[in-house]
């Protein structure tokens, strides 16, 4: 097949890990007879430095006219002082909104050979295989009113609004139940329905959508309990259905169960063009040192092949190469353990390319 892939490396480690994923995609395309055209675009702090805005119109056009977007990460201390509307993170929110990416899929599974990299006991984490489904274009991230305003008596008031409509909840619930059907047929819906009206509606609509999925088990859990259960007994979860902010927080927590945030990929879908990116950020503390783990991004490229292009065999080949590379003992610093071979970002990418099935 012929496909156009927008490549938005962004900031910090984004500029190191994205080239590794592109390297893998190029070899996969060559071996399987596909033509991928890679179109680079400026995004985030990098775009601010070059053209003054985090999401230039040209970048948005590149994304809209491609078949899929591969993104690294945006943000970093250099741009933290900027006014909110001009910050690198706005680019990501803009892309999600403009591309209609309301469903964010974040699979967290433990590669058995990485059990020692996790901060939790092996018997607690062994067999973890969950899918966090995060609503991505609604909730407190986008709700209005929002802002910071002066108070008459002095001081200021900062405010955001958590808001969900029936339709926004319905469509993400459908994604979760459909996904569960292809897995262990269990959805746990996360909310704070004991306190928040938006969560009360969330619970009601999810329960209603569930009526169409009698073969899938549904349970509801309060987010605070869920955060606790994730470290107490993570294996109980199959599909975790979350709103925007709860999904953001819980997926970072789920990442750490599997050894490192450098391992977790994601797919953001909903309309025509999907966006694929690791769940982690620009990791300024390790950027530019060739130590970032590129696996989350390479696995995101695999998700792109399967979700955007239905190239399941090619996606499985990348998965297989990741597993083999880990089995052979290659480890970046974040997942390193005694007796394993410590490698850098580029060397990990090279090893995964070498281990692609021919
Ligand atoms: N999708 C995105 O673009 C995205 C996501 C999260 C945060 N951010 C932005 O990134 C910047 C830094 O945020 P943060 O420090 O809170 O989160 P972060 O995810 O960048 O880093 C958190 C920790 O995880 C480590 N880490 C992250 N990715 C890693 C990798 N591939 N390999 C090894 N270790 C890795 C980092 O070194 C750091 O210690 C901020 O500007 C934030 O807004 C962007
Ligand atoms: C950088 C930020 C806007 C983003 C989010 O909160 O969605 C990030 O944390 C993520 O998880 O993709
Ligand atoms: Mg996050």
TrEMBL record:
SUPFAM superfamilies: Isocitrate/Isopropylmalate dehydrogenase-like (SSF53659). It comes from the Bacteria. Substrate binds at residues 96, 106, 134, 224. Its EC number is 1.1.1.85. One of its GO terms (biological process) is L-leucine biosynthetic process. Binds 1 Mg(2+) or Mn(2+) ion per subunit. GO terms for cellular component: cytosol. It is found in: Cytoplasm. Pathway: Amino-acid biosynthesis; L-leucine biosynthesis; L-leucine from 3-methyl-2-oxobutanoate: step 3/4. It holds the Pfam family Iso_dh. Mg(2+) binds at residues 224, 248, 252. PROSITE patterns: IDH_IMDH (PS00470). It catalyses: (2R,3S)-3-isopropylmalate + NAD(+) = 4-methyl-2-oxopentanoate + CO2 + NADH. NAD(+) binds at residues 76-89, 281-293. GO terms for molecular function: 3-isopropylmalate dehydrogenase activity; magnesium ion binding; NAD binding. Its cofactor is Mg(2+); Mn(2+). It is an enzyme of class 1 (oxidoreductase). Residues 4-352 form the Isopropylmalate dehydrogenase-like domain. The record marks 141, 192 as: Important for catalysis. Keywords: Amino-acid biosynthesis, Branched-chain amino acid biosynthesis, Cytoplasm, Leucine biosynthesis, Magnesium, Manganese, Metal-binding, NAD, Oxidoreductase. Homodimer. Catalyzes the oxidation of 3-carboxy-2-hydroxy-4-methylpentanoate (3-isopropylmalate) to 3-carboxy-4-methyl-2-oxopentanoate. The product decarboxylates to 4-methyl-2 oxopentanoate. Belongs to the isocitrate and isopropylmalate dehydrogenases family. LeuB type 1 subfamily. PANTHER family: 3-ISOPROPYLMALATE DEHYDROGENASE (PTHR42979:SF1). NCBIfam families: leuB. This is 3-isopropylmalate dehydrogenase. The gene is leuB.
